[in-house]
Amino acid sequence: MLDKGDATECQEIEETRGLAIYQKIAIVAWILILGSALGGRMVWPESFSVEAIGEYLKTHHHMAEVMFLVLVCVRPVILVPGTVLTFAGLLVFTPMSVFLMSMVGVVVSGAGVYFASYLMGFDRIVEAKYEKHITRMRPGIKKHGGWFIAVWSAFPLVPDDVICYLAGALRYSFWKFLIGFTVGGAIPIAAYSFGGGALFEWLW
User: Fold this and answer.
1) At CA 76, angle to CA 73 and CA 81, rounded to 5?
2) What are phi and psi of 203, to 5 degrees?
3) Is 121 left (phi over 0), alpha (psi -120 to 50) or beta?
4) How many CB atoms lie within 10 A of CB 90?
5) Residue 65 and which of 6, 17, 137, 178 are 20 to 30 A apart at CA?
6) Distance of alpha carbon 170 from alpha carbon 117, whole angstroms
7) Could you tell me if 160 and 93 lie in one domain?
8) Residue numbers of the domain that contains 35
9) Using CA of residue 93, residue 99, residue 103, residue 106, what is the dihedral sign?
10) One domain, residues 87 and 102
11) Residue 16: CA atoms inside 13 Å, Cβ hemisphere, count?
């Protein structure tokens, strides 16, 4: 008969095993979804263009807002650049509407990618591969992480999904991450939404 300590140890082992299996299932599912999205882009590249997405939203105008919100929230999964969705949205909505809905997408998608690093065990992978670097970086990230995340998110040429994975893998404070990511992400989205809206008005 197991004593309390042995029972607790066995329970922890079972939880670890279950978590490992759960992570493997999540990784396989993630790969399948990304593979399907990539395959779709290769087979039907025209369907992922600004014009095609904008036309699709116009055709389903009675649900256009909901559809656009879903698209901006799952953008990291369907592999559609944020600029494409922003310009497609400007063909249907006002610049302010595009900006507000895109910001909802930033919050939802950023949080999703952040927690995916936990779910898929990327935190363990990062810790194992970059242990020495992380040991030196962690104090700085915890102290200046919000500013670092905001600047990274505000620079459009840098994939902002990477910082979400990194923040999650380093177990950086979720709320500090989300605030920095949202503030930084608002800058390029505002530029694309209002600048693109002004450009569209000038052209048409």
Assistant:
1) 95
2) -75, -35
3) left
4) 24
5) 178
6) 9
7) yes
8) 1-42
9) positive
10) yes
11) 6
Residues 72 and 85 in one domain: yes
Burial of 10 (0-12, 13-18, 19+ CB in 10 A): exposed
Tell me how far apart the alpha carbons of residues 168 and 177 are, in angstroms, rounded to a whole number: 9
Report the 10 Å Cβ neighbour count for 49: 14
Is there a single domain that holds both residue 49 and residue 36? no
The phi and psi torsions of 78 (rounded to 5 degrees) equal -85, 0
What sign has the CA pseudo-torsion 153, 156, 159, 161? positive
Task: List pLDDT tens digits, range 129-159.
Answer: 656 656 665 676 677 778 888 888 887 666 6
Choose between 169 and 204: higher pLDDT: 169
Q: Do both 18 and 98 map to the same domain?
A: no
Q: State pLDDT tens for residues 95-128.
A: 999 999 999 999 998 998 888 776 776 666 656 6
Maximum alpha-carbon separation in the chain:
80
156 and 58 belong to one structural domain: yes
Total tally of structural domains belonging to the chain: 2
DSSP state of 79: T
110 and 32 in one domain?
A: no
DSSP class per residue in 37-71: HHHHHHH-GGGGSHHHHHHHHHHTGGGHHHHHHHH
49: which 2 tokens? 């263009």
Within its chain, how far is the Cα of 113 from the centroid? 5
Shared-domain flag, residues 108 and 89: yes
